[in-house]
Amino acid sequence: MSSQEFLIENEKDGTLMVLIPAGKFLAGDDKFTIELPAYYMAIHPVTNAQYARFLNAEKPNKEDLELWIKLDSDCFVKRSFFGYTAYGGKESHPVNQISWYGAKAYCEWAGLRLPTELEWEKGSRGIDGMEYPWGNEWNEAKCRNKNNKGNETTAEIYSYPEGVSPYGLYQMSGNVTEWCEDRYDGDAYKRYKTGNLTLPDSGTERCLRGGSWHYNNTGFFRCAFRDNTVPGVPLYGFRCVRTG
Length: 244
Description:
By secondary structure, this protein is an alpha+beta fold. The protein has helices at about 50-60, 60-70, 100-110, 115-125, 190-195; strands at about 5-10, 15-20, 25, 30-35, 40, 75-80, 85, 180-185, 205-210, 225-230, 240-244. The protein has five helices and eleven strands; from the N terminus they run βββββααββααβαβββ. The radius of gyration is 17 Å and the shape is globular.
């Protein structure tokens, strides 16, 4: 049965989400078994058009706006006479220049949430511990990266269909690095390996996953690769999940 048969649409923002069934999967670099409950995950990262719609609905004050998003030349959301708009033919590209706070605010507006690291990883690699969303061998043609971007930066959300994850999720490798909910703990996976899936409750940084259009180190594109930075850095993208 195709994963597309389990698609739902989030009413508030139109995000298409696919069911990630409850069950076990192989996690981490050393591929140990983790069991997660069911959840729905967005099949693509939040787009520039979606984020502009959110800003128009929320009408953030200057302080919140500057905390959430960096409206510079690398961002394809801008102020307009009527509020905010996506531009440059990038309406259906993933939004970037977003902080963790900006990602969190969007999810709360949409009635969704950010994925945990483990939810993100299962959505990316499936149950069998694949190295990349499409398999175990690196293939730069299957995701947006520094070697194939040409004069572009991000790619349209439904590009590179040959690189989708086992659940039909686009852009789980490359395009934009994505925020996760968790605080970063370098030893978290050691704890998860014992069966204790409690999220870290301390730490000043948040977790990032996925790789990016401006990377060419293949290690950054691996499903198990963990990255982190302080939540106020407005540089990345994100996708949403919903509890099943």
